Amino acid sequence: MDALQFLVQGLSVALEPLNLFFAFFGCLIGTLVGVLPGIGPISGVALLIPVTATLTSGLPTEQAATSSIILLAGVYYGAMYGGSTTAILINTPGENSSVCTTLDGYQMAKQGRAGAALAVCAIGSFAAGLIACIGLVFMAVPLAEFALKFSPAGQFSLMILGLCALSSLAGKSQIKAFIMTTLGLILSTVGVDPISGVARLTFGYSELYSGIEFLTMAVGMFALGEVFKTILTNDYATGELIKVGKVMPTRQDLKDSAVPILRGSLLGFFQGLIPGCGATLSSFMAYTVEKKLSKNKANFGKGAIEGVAAPEAANNGAAGGAMIPLLTLGIPGTGTTAVLMGALIMFNITPGPLLFQDHPQVAWGLIASMIVGNFMLLILNLPLVKVFAKVIETPPKYLIPGIVAISVFGVYAVQVSVFNLFLMIGSGLAAYYLAKNDYPIAPLVLSLILGPMIENNLRRAMNLYNGDYSMFVRDPISLIFLMIAVLWVAIPAVMKLRGKKVIVEEGV
């Protein structure tokens, strides 16, 4: 009952005119981000952070954080809606989580049923988004209250688990993922030590005394990194666009897709709760399950509507589920939620168990806005699907200068530092060469965000236990987290050694 009362309070925040506009703007931009191949939700969210910081600069801190996170979350789940459009119309997924949608979605489009496939995607995404929001409403507070009982050792081990979970399934090589995690932790120590006052890894540059700014790194690595990739490899989707045709699905389409949507939503939501199991893994799992359960297995790969409905519902369910560990435990389970966490920290709002006590306006305003946003996306995507389809034809010569301009002016407007502009360009070039050689970027950025919190909890634990490191294994909760972290790393490694295929979150 308390949860419903909090939700009503959250709705009063989400329905304020400014927040309604920000939710709509975020959903619209997110859909466009999903539609445009090569710009995933991470890049879209990173690119919009300086824009939101500028738009909310005159507001009180809590209000600015609420409005900003509403907009950025709208970009996140809006991109999940839009990612299916290119997958169906040109056989090129707008993002990795839409790869499964190409298998049957493109075949439906070739049969003249592109409109029905896109409509089922929108309906499935809407249903999954609502189910995830309901789960978030009823699970968030109990989980946050449970997390408040963690000791500093438990909190430290939980963050180690979060790092291991994302790193073990990011990219094709675990070793490269852990190299990036370590590099991110090293970069997080740059700056003046808050306790001893000693400058660490600053090399005499006063600009680094306050540490490496998350905003600069996120925009550089995710937004400019994609720009450099597009320019240097000419990597831009140019497939032939299939006409959308009649949009509304038939009654039989709705009947055939209803159960797969429900199964995919629940599967995606519960997988999203597990750090590291992002939307891509969920959509693959949902497709596999649906194929095994179907009475018409032979139709899969030839235009089965169940093969479109289930993975699209799963990736949206996973996006909503991933918000729970972020908001309640302060552990981002995906690259995009890591960037969202960094954005909240920029506004001095730390996600975690205390978020619902200290900043209920931010937490419940965001949850309520996700419900409102899902209705907006359904209304946007069904009648305007033909308009969004036209966006695919946007040539890169217009798109790339726009991204560069937003990146440069956005970062300068917030940081007012030429040094940070050079750092942003350098990190963008580094991201291109790292990604080209299969070094995943998300673990580095996640480590950069979690590094100061890990260091803080380690120091608190050491002070509390008089430097006794054995407390990390004597504390039951800490021990459980450490054991899960070890298993999380070991199981995929053992599976690879035994020749088993491990699905990873590529592109994070």
What does this structure look like?
- This protein has 22 helices and two strands.
- By secondary structure, it is an all-alpha fold.
- The protein has one domain.
- The protein has a two-stranded antiparallel ribbon with strand order 1-2.
- A hairpin with a 6-residue loop joins strand 1 and strand 2 (199-200).
- Helix 2 packs parallel to helix 4 (61-89) and helix 4 (61-89) packs antiparallel against helix 12.
- The protein is globular, with a radius of gyration of 22 Å.
- The mean pLDDT is 82.
Q: In angstroms, what separates the terminal alpha carbons?
A: 38 Å
The average pLDDT value, as a whole number, equals 82
Question: What Rg do the Cα atoms give?
Answer: 22 Å
Spans of at least 5 consecutive residues with low confidence: none
Structural class: mainly alpha
Query: What is the multimeric organization of the chains shown?
Result: single chain
**Sheet with the most strands, sense and barrel status:** 2 strands, antiparallel
Number of strands: 2
Please, how many domains? Answer: 1
Q: How are strands sequenced across the largest beta sheet?
A: 1-2
Bulk shape: globular
Strand content: under 5%
Put simply, the count of helices is 22
Question: H/E order of the elements?
Answer: HHHHHHHHEEHHHHHHHHHHHHHH
| Helicity range | over 70%
